[in-house]
What does this fold into?
Amino acid sequence: MAPAVPSAHVRTGTEVTDMSDAALATTTADATVSFAIPRRALGALRGWHVYLALGLAAIGAYYRLPKAGWGQCILLTTLNATAALVAARAAWRGRGWSRVLWISLGFAMLLSAVGNGPYFGYPLVTGRILPFPSPVDAVLLAAFPFFALALVALTRIHRGARRRGRLLDAGILVIGGGLVLWEQMVVPTAAFPLPKFALQVSVAYPVLDVVLFALLAWFLAVASGRNAATGWLVASYVILLAGAAEFSAQVGAGTYAYGGPTDALWMLSYLLVGVAALHPASITAPRPAGAPRRATAVVRFVVVTGALLVGPVMLVVGTHQGTLVGYATALAAVFAVARVLRSVRRPAPALAY
It folds into this structure.
């Protein structure tokens, strides 16, 4: 895993000195106005703006460097490490669950950096591919619990009134999305012809990715309030999971290579953690959300319905995990029935969720 862009008028002739003085005053005033806009722009510039711009530039520069070379190794690891540093800064300034959030992400970023360095650097030093499994895998796998704890802390920060409808929706989303990821990532990985211990370590990566997805889906379904830093963090997790899915697909197809497109996804994920940590809202309580809009309720209904249909579609199309999918589909159906019954009993807030 692992794994972030006048013109001047010259007067000549018989003008009097007073006119020259007036022209000089006008020129000075124009110069003052011309510099006022950049100063205002600089005043609005924040540390997270600079960090985001530099990070995006670094990701762009990454693919201008020799593929799988020292330049790429150092750039990726450095971006990862800076995210750990700014997360530690946010943890120092935070309190309560906010501090737990940033301490967890700081450790996750640190462990990722410590793992990514030798992961990319070992072939450059030895000329051989890193053995699998290795101590590097232990470091990278150790980052997952901290990513998970950060999502738990984020959910606590955004906790609102407990609504049974949202909890049921969260369960349906977790089951539907989890089945897709399990089929696309875990099942192919488990089919690799590897020794037992190596296979267990290999499968641990996608299984933990599914756990992270479940926690993220749960957060999105039950969270309350708005916070700009949280938005950056959610985007970071989404990109991290996208990178893991792409990595799994490339490994399964035998096309993965150091310095490939998955590195950009991992780097962008690290970058967004740093952006969120530097954002002024990183240690502030979320603002109360406004009244739910009808469009929001419609989107939620469509997403939950789609998640509910995942199991039946997989059973019709065909799956290697028929028993698992069957039980999961039955559980999702129970949640859906409970959701409908609740809406019938309380029709007024049904669309508001």
In short: Residues 38-345 form one domain. The CA atoms of residues 250 and 338 lie 40 Å apart. The two ends are 35 Å apart (CA to CA). The longest helix spans residues 96-126.
